[in-house]
Amino acid sequence: MEKISLSLPATRTLQGRALAGVVGSGDMEALYVASTAATLEVTITTSIDNSQVRWQRLFERISELGSLPGGTLTIHDFGATPGVARIRIEQVFEEAQHA
């Protein structure tokens, strides 16, 4: 298991909390808690060692295609592909937007 922490610039604000995915499903879950901070603090616990660069690049791509919200994002990853990870992250932000 590897634990990764990222601090990313945030350019939008959301409300509340949201959960996407199920950790026991074999891929990943993402829990987002909104705040008015100018950063998104991400904590990733993953079963894939040496994956920090992959996660950094994934968040760079998400940031390039849209804006990241302020708050905290906790991810429990158990081998999700980058595509599934991106879907879960986008789902959790979308759910928080409608909370």
Automatic annotation (TrEMBL):
Species this protein is from: Biostraticola tofi
Q: Give the modified residues of type O-(phosphoribosyl dephospho-coenzyme A)serine.
A: S25
**PTM notes:** Covalently binds the prosthetic group of malonate decarboxylase.
Which GO molecular-function terms appear in the entry? acyl carrier activity
Keyword annotations of the record: Cytoplasm, Phosphoprotein
**Which cellular compartments is it found in?**
Cytoplasm
- Gene symbol here is mdcC
Its GO CC terms are: cytoplasm
Q: What does this protein do?
A: Subunit of malonate decarboxylase, it is an acyl carrier protein to which acetyl and malonyl thioester residues are bound via a 2'-(5''-phosphoribosyl)-3'-dephospho-CoA prosthetic group and turn over during the catalytic mechanism.
Q: Per the record's keyword annotation, is Transport included, yes or no?
A: no
What name does the UniProt record give this protein? Malonate decarboxylase acyl carrier protein
The family classification in the record reads: Belongs to the MdcC family.
